[in-house]
């Protein structure tokens, strides 16, 4: 399939659900509950499914299983792949940022701990955090009708994130963000430490105002996605 977005084309109706295999799609308990209890779908209603690895197909809800109503369609992945890495923040702010970055079509999302991060990783809680954020990713992909699940990396430190190919950090005094960039790092609300600035001297700006960390991550995703779209047009 051609197109400028790695998502389903216009005209595909009904809800969009992530399944393990589009060749033989099956609904898990949570997805069926969402369709039947939340969205109020009835037997015979149409939907689409994706495996999150670039394929989708139309289906119809039946009493006990899904009935496929069309062939598997492959969706191309946009190039270049885009990465947004952002510093860990408190409460549910990382979930908001991850959700919106998925909707924007970012290909890799990295959550790292910066020198001035107020929140810190608790190793014993990381499995639960990963599981929760994976659910956020799946829900956002369904909302945006995407066909590619982005890579999600959490529990990283600054050095690992800074080693990403072509990574630059955000700073109000930085250069303009353009389509030559593929990886942007967003610091914590306390700002970058001197060590981090020295380790990554190149920076890009997201605008003149001071943004909250989660807002900055979303803004970076918007600008990267828009720059990629312009270069592809």
CATH fold assignment of the largest domain: Alpha/beta knot
The CATH superfamily label of the largest domain reads SPOUT methyltransferase, trefoil knot domain
Strand proportion, as a percent range, falls in 15-25%
Distance between the termini: 16 Å
Quick one: how many beta strands? 11
The CATH architecture of the largest domain comes to 3-Layer(aba) Sandwich
CATH class of the largest domain: Alpha Beta
- Gross morphology: elongated
What count of structural domains?
2
Rg computed from alpha carbons, rounded to a whole number of angstroms? 19 Å
Mean pLDDT: 90
| Low-pLDDT windows of residues | none
- Into which percent range does the helicity of residues fall? 25-40%
Helix tally equals: 6
What is the SS-derived class? alpha/beta
Largest sheet: 6 strands, parallel
Q: SSE string, helix = H, strand = E? A: EHEEEEEHEHEHEEHEH
């Amino acid at each position: 399939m051609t197109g400028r977005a790695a998502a389903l084309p216009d005209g595909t109706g009904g809800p969009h659900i992530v399944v393990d295999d589009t060749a033989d799609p099956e609904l898990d308990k949570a997805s069926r509950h969402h369709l039947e209890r939340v969205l109020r779908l009835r037997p015979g209603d149409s939907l689409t499914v994706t495996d999150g690895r670039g394929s989708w197909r139309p289906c119809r809800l039946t009493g006990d299983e899904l009935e496929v109503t069309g062939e598997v369609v492959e969706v191309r992945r946009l190039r270049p792949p885009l990465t947004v890495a952002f510093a860990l923040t408190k409460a549910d702010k990382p979930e908001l940022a991850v959700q919106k970055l998925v909707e924007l079509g970012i290909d890799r999302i990295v959550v790292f701990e910066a020198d001035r991060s107020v929140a810190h990783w608790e190793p014993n809680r990381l499995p639960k955090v990963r599981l929760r954020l994976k659910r956020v990713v799946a829900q956002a992909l369904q909302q945006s009708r995407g066909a590619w699940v982005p890579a999600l990396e959490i529990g990283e430190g600054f050095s690992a994130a800074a080693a990403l190919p072509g990574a630059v950090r955000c700073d109000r005094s930085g250069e303009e963000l353009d389509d030559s960039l593929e990886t942007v790092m967003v610091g914590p609300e306390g700002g970058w430490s001197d060590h981090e600035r020295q380790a990554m001297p190149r920076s890009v700006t997201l605008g003149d105002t001071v943004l909250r960390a989660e807002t900055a991550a979303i803004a970076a995703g918007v600008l990267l996605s828009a720059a990629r779209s312009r270069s592809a047009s």
